[in-house]
Amino acid sequence: MARKAPGFGDTLGRWLVDEGLAPDEADPGSLADVGRVRAVLIAAARERRAVSYSELLGQLGHRFTRPRMRAVCKTLDAIDSAGAAAGEPNLAVLVVRETDRLPGQGWWVGAADAYGYQGEWTGPDAAALVARLQAQAFDYWDAKKR
To answer: Rounded CA gap, 13 and 16, in Å?
Structure first.
C-alpha cells in the first residue's frame, strides 16, 4: 500500500490512522458486537487474566471514553445473560478498572441480584468475590480449549 504524505485538509488524527499508529474508530458498532466482545473475553479467560475497560475498548478499536464504556457495558450484560442461559460463568467480571482491578459500578449493581452480594464495591470482600468468579471463568474456558 502506497503511503500518502499528509496534505492540505488532512488531520493529524487521520494521518495517524492511515499510518497504522492509531486505531480507526469508524466502526462504533463494534461496541455492540456481542460475538467480537465475547471472543476478546474468552481469549482473556483462557490466558487467565482480566482486561481493563480501556484495554477492551482498545481491542475494539476505540479510545476510552465514559460513553463508550457505558455502551460496551450493555454488551457485557447481553453476553452474561446469554452465557447464564447456556450454563457458562460470568465473563463481564473479567472487565475491570485499571486502578483497583475490580469491575465498575454497573457490574456491582447486578452482582447484588446475581450473587446476593451486599458488601462494599471495593476492598477485600469485593476482591474475594471477583477473584472467585474470575477463577470460575478461567477454569471453565481453560477446560473448553482442550
So the answer is: 5
Q: Report the C-alpha gap between 101 and 94 in whole angstroms.
A: 9
- C-alpha 101/C-alpha 11 separation (Å) is 36
CA angle 109, 115, 117 (to 5 degrees): 60
More reliable by pLDDT, 65 or 124: 124
Only one residue has cell 450484560, namely 77
- The per-residue pLDDT for 10 is 56
Strand, helix or coil at 138? helix
Contact in structure between 103 and 95 (CB atoms under 8 Å): yes
DSSP-H helix ranges across 25-123: 34-46, 53-59, 66-85, 105-115
Q: Is 51 helix (H, G, I), strand (E, B) or coil?
A: strand
Q: What share of the chain is helix, strand, coil (3-state, %, to 5)?
A: 60, 5, 40
Q: Closest Cα partner for 61 from 97, 101, 31, 104?
A: 31
